[in-house]
């Protein structure tokens, strides 16, 4: 059947294009080519068969399994819940027919009210998702959460150097003030000021990828990727801890997050394995701490503290780390959950030697962690 409609009506092609815009807003990567393929497929199966239209959309508009859940949700919300596709309806005279959500029979006022309710519902869903435990999310929710990492506000921690820079207040810059006076033949000149210059501190991320942390590994590496690209170049170093130490900075420097995580997965040999935090931290300090990666840095350890090795060794290595680093932050995914108490031997061993012990199970806690790092 033909999808063309008279110019005075809102035709089926405009409704279907509006549906593709809604999909794109929901996070599905709908390109112009896919949209054209969708229109051609619907022209073949016909608008009267809702099941066929849905199947055509899933086949032409979805690029992977993660898009299917979002497609089904948008399809159900966009089209008539009674199972019938929207029909062409008169558009206001003299006004172009925009590709928007189909209007309801209640009139313009009812449509505006429904749009406001949809916006509130979407905002509410986003806020709820920010506070959900990432280990309990469905694949579709994890895909939505992955897009939300770009919203994290990241600032670099800074340190004062021995050098000075011009500033509008602070200490008097005697040399510049005298030179300015000499240029005026000894006449008084405006007082120059200076302050000690600031440089960003290095941030070191140590991510536990053992079996007990497997539900959080993907989100933590996405957070590491966000920090790597948001902070000044070469100021973030990332390692994984498990049965061995792995340096992950290079793969995480890939610009696209999904490609970076695939490269990281190919680099780490001990995903979901055992936990030897004490030995891994010792290897990090022996190979990287002495070379300066941790010296004066903000070191963030992501781990639940389940240690299979000797807790005394873990406590000794964290104490060494605290002496070398500017600040040690320990992020435990169970810290922010109701009823949690630090009873694990590994956690009890490290608590006396860490500066901050914070939660790390949701996007909201990752936002709080970014502030802790910035203020360090």
Description:
There is one protein chain. With 376 residues, this protein is of the alpha/beta class. It has three domains: 1-89; 159-199, no CATH class; 201-375, Rossmann fold. The protein has 14 helices and eleven strands. It has a six-stranded mixed β-sheet with strand order 8-7-6-9-10-11. A three-stranded antiparallel β-sheet has the order 3-5-4, with no helix packed on it. A two-stranded antiparallel ribbon has the order 1-2. α2 (32-45) runs antiparallel to α3 (50-61), α3 (50-61) packs antiparallel against α4 and α11 (277-289) packs parallel to α12. The longest helix is centred in the N-terminal third of the chain and has 24 residues, at 108-131. The radius of gyration is 28 Å and the shape is flat.
Provide a compact summary of the structure.
With 376 residues, the chain is of the alpha/beta class. It has helices spanning 12-25, 32-45, 50-61, 65-78, 108-131, 139-148, 174-183, 214-230, 249-252, 257-267, 277-289, 311-324, 345-350, 363-375; strands at residues 9-10, 89-90, 158-167, 171-172, 193-200, 203-208, 236-241, 245-247, 298-302, 327-332, 356-359.
CATH architecture designation of the largest domain: 3-Layer(aba) Sandwich
The strand order across the widest sheet is: 8-7-6-9-10-11
Oligomer classification: single chain
Biggest sheet overview: 6 strands, mixed
What's the layout of helices and strands?
Elements: E1 9-10, H1 12-25, H2 32-45, H3 50-61, H4 65-78, E2 89-90, H5 108-131, H6 139-148, E3 158-167, E4 171-172, H7 174-183, E5 193-200, E6 203-208, H8 214-230, E7 236-241, E8 245-247, H9 249-252, H10 257-267, H11 277-289, E9 298-302, H12 311-324, E10 327-332, H13 345-350, E11 356-359, H14 363-375
Parallel strand pairs: 6-7, 6-9, 9-10, 10-11
Antiparallel strand pairs: 1-2, 3-5, 4-5, 7-8
